[in-house]
């Protein structure tokens, strides 16, 4: 059924700041692994709003909790606390290494909090201990501080002068990291899997080596699990699979299942650094967001859900390898859990967006991770049948592209 809303993709160009280039279809409804646009066309969602709607669209438990909380209490700010925030914080500490939680609204805000904590902790040790180390091609958010830490020049060009006291090393290269480490470093921040940087997982050796270097130089280890967290990796958080415990962990995206919320998790020993008045967020710990996130966490904590992530990840990866072999667009896949990257073959490099658009034409939403890598991030509770259907649609998209290329 066509939706007559009076707005279209052209409206975006008329009234919105042009920092985005959204595709033409405008989704108006979602259910499970599927979306429908204004014209009523159906799509399979293997993008999840950039790995956010981990339980799919319109999940009945999330709807029920949101509706119930909306009738009770929406907002009180942080001059008071509220029950959903306290319950969610308690549950997160029960399920992780952390003792304390700070709530905010996004991954960038969670990372800002982590970087401020690290700087304040370092200053308390020694005023010269203020350097933050990150990795090239990392992504930690879009604020000026977080893009500066991120190590991707395309996000910082034109915004100079940039914040100082930041160094970068090559990912999965311990020698490169060791070369920039000294006792002025207050923290090293890393993604267990570089998401925007190409869906590139850390090796186990590298992860353990980073922890050891942090310990040697008395630096905090911050894990950015904005994208890998909340079941996306196949465990609640990816650090569990690496056998490395960070000092600080940031998360967002899938935590709210689509409702904006972020969190920074840390230990008792470090939490006191952010004493009264040192940091804050008007909306952080909002009752609506926390009530939904609490329901999300309870779903993610179910063994059956995490088992499904592993099974569907294997199914999707196997299917992608077959499609890649058949059409020659890409080779081996990489990633963790249901965050899967497919690096394009040499002849197709730079054309990731073309592949995404071809998939969209076949009724499948995908993502890019830079110009050379396709990114697949379907719902964590997706069925085997929907994975198979998504692979069929993607196969048709690849066939259309290769036939056009051959012509």
UniProtKB/TrEMBL annotation:
In this chain, pyridoxal 5'-phosphate is annotated as bound at: 107-108, 139, 224-227, 282
Report keywords, A-Z: Amino-acid biosynthesis, Aminotransferase, Arginine biosynthesis, Cytoplasm, Pyridoxal phosphate, Transferase
Pathway linked to the protein: Amino-acid biosynthesis; L-arginine biosynthesis; N(2)-acetyl-L-ornithine from L-glutamate: step 4/4
Q: Name one Pfam family in it.
A: Aminotran_3
Give this protein's Gene Ontology molecular function annotations: N2-acetyl-L-ornithine:2-oxoglutarate 5-aminotransferase activity; succinyldiaminopimelate transaminase activity
Catalytic activity reads: N(2)-acetyl-L-ornithine + 2-oxoglutarate = N-acetyl-L-glutamate 5-semialdehyde + L-glutamate
EC class, as a word, reads transferase
Modified sites of kind N6-(pyridoxal phosphate)lysine: 253
Return the InterPro entries for the record.
Ac/SucOrn_transaminase_bac, AcOrn/SuccOrn_fam, Aminotrans_3, Aminotrans_3_PPA_site, Class-III_PLP-dep_AT, PyrdxlP-dep_Trfase, PyrdxlP-dep_Trfase_major, PyrdxlP-dep_Trfase_small
Cofactor binding description: Binds 1 pyridoxal phosphate per subunit.
Name the positions where N(2)-acetyl-L-ornithine binds.
142, 281
Superkingdom, taxonomy of origin: Bacteria
Name the principal localization, coarsely classed.
cytoplasm
EC number assigned by the record: 2.6.1.11
Tell me the compartments it is located in.
Answer: Cytoplasm
Which cofactors are reported in the record for this sequence?
Answer: pyridoxal 5'-phosphate
| Stated family | Belongs to the class-III pyridoxal-phosphate-dependent aminotransferase family. ArgD subfamily.
Q: What else is known?
A: May also have succinyldiaminopimelate aminotransferase activity, thus carrying out the corresponding step in lysine biosynthesis.
Q: Which NCBIfam families match?
A: arg_catab_astC (TIGR03246), argD (TIGR00707), PRK01278.1 (NF002325), PRK05093.1 (NF003468)
HAMAP family noted in UniProt: ArgD_aminotrans_3 (MF_01107)
What interactions and quaternary structure are annotated?
A: Homodimer.
What is this protein identified as? Acetylornithine aminotransferase
Which organism does this sequence originate in? Sinimarinibacterium thermocellulolyticum
């Amino acid at each position: 059924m066509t939706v007559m809303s009076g707005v279209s993709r052209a409206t975006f160009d008329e009234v919105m700041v042009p920092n985005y280039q959204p595709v033409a279809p405008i989704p108006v409804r979602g259910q499970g692994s599927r979306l429908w646009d204004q014209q009523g066309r159906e799509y399979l969602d293997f993008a999840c709003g950039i790995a956010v709607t981990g339980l799919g669209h319109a999940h009945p438990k999330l709807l029920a909790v949101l509706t119930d909380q909306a009738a009770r209490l929406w907002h009180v700010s942080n001059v008071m606390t509220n029950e959903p925030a306290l319950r969610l914080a308690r549950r997160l500490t029960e399920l992780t290494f952390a003792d304390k939680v700070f709530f905010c609204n996004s991954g960038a805000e969670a990372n800002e909090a982590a970087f401020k904590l690290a700087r304040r902790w370092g200053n308390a040790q020694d005023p010269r201990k203020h350097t933050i180390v990150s990795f090239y091609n990392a992504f930690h958010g879009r604020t000026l501080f977080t893009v500066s830490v991120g190590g991707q020049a395309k996000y910082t060009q034109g915004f100079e002068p940039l914040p100082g006291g930041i160094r970068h090393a090559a990912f999965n290269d311990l020698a490169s990291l060791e070369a920039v480490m000294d006792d002025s470093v207050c923290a090293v921040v890393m993604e267990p899997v570089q998401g925007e940087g190409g869906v590139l997982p850390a090796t186990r050796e590298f992860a353990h080596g980073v922890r050891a270097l942090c310990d040697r130089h008395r630096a905090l280890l911050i894990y950015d699990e904005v994208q890998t967290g909340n079941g996306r990796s196949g465990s609640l958080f990816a650090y569990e699979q690496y056998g490395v415990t960070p000092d600080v962990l940031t998360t967002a995206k899938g935590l709210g299942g689509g409702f904006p919320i972020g969190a920074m998790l840390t230990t008792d020993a470090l939490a006191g650094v952010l004493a009264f008045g040192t940091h804050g967020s008007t909306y952080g710990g909002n009752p609506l967001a926390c009530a939904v996130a609490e329901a999300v966490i309870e779903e993610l904590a179910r063994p059956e859900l995490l088992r499904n992530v592993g099974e569907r990840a294997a199914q999707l990866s196997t299917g992608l390898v077959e499609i890649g072999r058949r059409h020659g667009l890409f080779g081996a896949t990489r990633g963790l859990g249901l965050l899967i990257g497919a690096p394009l073959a040499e002849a197709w490099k730079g054309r990731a967006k073309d592949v995404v658009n071809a998939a969209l034409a076949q009724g499948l939403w995908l993502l890019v991770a830079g110009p050379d890598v396709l990114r697949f991030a379907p719902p964590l509770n997706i069925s085997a049948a929907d994975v198979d259907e998504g692979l069929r649609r993607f196969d048709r998209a690849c066939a259309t592209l290769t036939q056009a290329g051959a012509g």
